[in-house]
Design brief:
Elements lengths: L2 H27 L6 H8 L3 H7 L3 H21 L7 H18 L3 H11 L12 H25 L8 H19 L12 H20 L3
Amino acid sequence: MGIYERRQREKNSRIEAILDSAEKLISKEGFNSFTLSRLAKDLELSRGIIYYYFKNEENIIAKLIADKMVLLFDILKSIPEDLNGYDSIKSVLEKFHGFLKKEVNYLNLISYFTTCKLSKMDIKHIPYYQEYEILRDKIFNVCLKSIEKGVADGSIDADVNPPVATYAIWAGVGSFWEFMLKDNVLREVKLPYLKRVDIFLQEYFRMIFKALKCC
């Protein structure tokens, strides 16, 4: 291995360690405890080393989101192309549901990234934001194409407007997550928080499937 390759591998390893530690810190203590100084302390590194790779906390969060969106898009690309439109969109949402159960920080990261920091800085100037936008649009189009296919092949109700339906589905997921962040939501179910989230998602997607299906 040459000098360049070795240094690149060391760089990638350091970035991976920073991202892993950042996600663990956010998951355990929330965003208020997430600072470059705290991250440097946890990793036993100088703040300058963290700053060399990421200029601020927003850059780290954007990179975490972009990496997770790459994983999600790869999962969605595995859906067979020979499915009818209804089965395709159903598979998209089922795989998305499975992804959320595994990547429990995903929607929290997006919610924080796209709302809490908007008043403090121009989000489009954050590194990795363009990557985030490209992946977001690709994932949106997977959903859109499935619904368009379903309307065309008759497996989805002909009255469904594909772009509007797609926006409604993803807007619903975002709104649902903001709602679920409230401590009192579904307390009467008397289950752990993540289990309550899972139950809510199952019901939400069940209603979507029923609304889309051609009678």
